[in-house]
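User: Teach me something about this protein's shape.
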Amino acid sequence: SLVVLFGATAGAYGAKLGSDERELILLVWQVVDLHSKKVGTLHKSLVKADNLDLSDQCREVSGLTSEGLGKAEPLDRVLQQFSQLVSSDLKVLGRSSYTLCSDGQLLIRQVLHPETSKKNFLLSDCFYSFYDLRKEFHTCYPSSAAVKDQTIKTMAEYLGLGTDEAEEDFGVWQVKTMVAIIFSMLSEGCNHVFTEPETVKYKYETGPCSKSETVDSETVIRARGLPWQSSDQDIARFFKGLNIAKGGVALCLNSQGRRNGEALVRFVNSEQRDLALERHKHHMGSRYIEVYKATGEEFLKIAGGTSNEVAQFLSKENQVIIRMRGLPFTATQEDVLGFLGPECPVTGGKEGLLFVKYPDGRPTGDAFVLFSCEEYAQNALKKHKEILGKRYIELFRSTAAEVQQVLNRYMSTPLIPTLPTPIIPVIPQPYTIATGSIRDCVRLRGLPYTAGIDDILEFMGDATGDIKPHGVHMVLNQQGRPSGDAFIQMKSADKAFMVAQKCHKKMMKDRYVEVFQCSGEEMNFVLMGGTLNRSGLSPPPCKLPCLSPPAYAAFQTAAVIPAEAAALYQPQALLPTTRTPQASAAAPPTVTYYPAQAAQLYMNYTAYYPSPPVSPTTVGYLAAPPGAVAAAATATHTPILPQPGALVRMQGLPYNTGMKEILSFFQGYQYAPDDYNGLIQLSDQARSVLQAPKEWVCL
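Assistant: First, the predicted structure itself:
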């Protein structure tokens, strides 16, 4: 038996049904016995919505009023009546089982499932399997219009069914016409058989994803604006009614390893993806979520993994994953199990723990834990910020994709990137923050928080060539996050004036950016922690400023000397390693100021190198003739970096450590001679803005 079902919401109708999040206000249904070709009673039920304001289209098409709906029953009561009446009609027809049949998929997938999920009550099993009359009709009549172009009216016209929509109430005509179409499909000329119903997944299935998999770009979307604490199950609930592929939710992390409010979601086919795009700006709680198309490559970059250890850890299916952060570096598996306690047993004991480590085996303080059920996971989350050893531990819900991302991030990070075979010469110029009252700088205000140096350069267009070396300065707030401001030093006041006139209120990533001309003195105040507003300049606080480059996504893997390392040396200290004349001849004739996209530096924000005092956006500097480069390289006063492997970095030194203590520490080892020139301390200028422990580099 089939139960032919039709519904309407208080908003959009037809192809946009459910796209505006409006509630269901009408259900009409009738039981059809496919064997005896008999029908049950036709039922029409109004549904009382929480918001009784009807759209103009709804009033015009349905003829319903807010007053009439105010007397109806709520959705949960109507669905109970639906089940009771269907069972009664089936009993009269001598049948016991049935499957729903609707006009398309929107009523089931885009209306009923999302609404009941938001109202926190469960749909009966019958709503997880249904026949799409449009698909069945096209299968029966291949010469008819495409499925996406079908409507009840076009199907009736194709069969020549003489029905007048104006003679019946809204909903009644639709159901009667659908029943007539079904009987035509069952006639002797067609003998159509309903065999393969559409299905809705009961729950989201977790699982690993390998980078070797092929992911169709027509099945992936990007969701933006998610609450930071949302899990993969929350995202699956947002897309309730649509079938997400196994392990198809990948929460994106920023360069600090924290969630950035975005996720990539992979669906089982392009049809489900297209339905997901219709949920653009639907709400998760009080927040609206933006939904855009994405690619399979983007999904694999976030969710794909190659580690056998991770694959084995995630091989246990349908587990709840919890991420622990802030663990003591000395914490063992026994310590973690003891911290969690018997009330939240870990799946497989020690096998259900995965510690995240650096490539050299040092712990990062992160770990992932598997739990077999939601109850155990909830018990574990109650221990959020409890103490283990002398540290409080943070616990969050996690996903298989997040496990892959975190492991990929740390395992692909070199402790200190090795100096590469020189590709371009690198001769840093002495850096000085501008001072004076000459208005040769511009201030960018209102930048997108995701904007980087490349975005600023693209925003400025042709004026990029008028920027001074190291002239782009990103301003971060006290939490170390982008503040939306940046300062740019131009070659002259005229150039700064032209940029301010040309780029003021120009768009960057859906936001307009304000551009003001300012002086080096004003820029210096803000960079050092002061404020600049209509009231004038406010001096920097006594607390040191928080300046650093934008947070990059990962470490640079290409062979490029990291600009962060330049902060460890005095000016003119970095030179290319020894090259043969042939290699020098093959070098480019000039040194570019801004690198191409392929040479973009990336940086793990969490460790390894302190941030230099300005934006580390360049590999080279202003164009210089090869002769000048060679002359600088042969200067006797400039120390040359040793071959890779001869350089070590000391981290965690006491603040009062001096040269004598370091030499004593390395007693018995041979270091570079020349009056201890191999011992290079961080410059005072760099340290004044780094707020980092004293560090030394030994050659």
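Now, about its shape. The chain has five domains: 2-199, 209-305, 308-411, 441-528, 648-667+676-698. The longest helix spans residues 75-93. If you'd like, I can walk through any region in more detail.
User: That's plenty for now, thanks!
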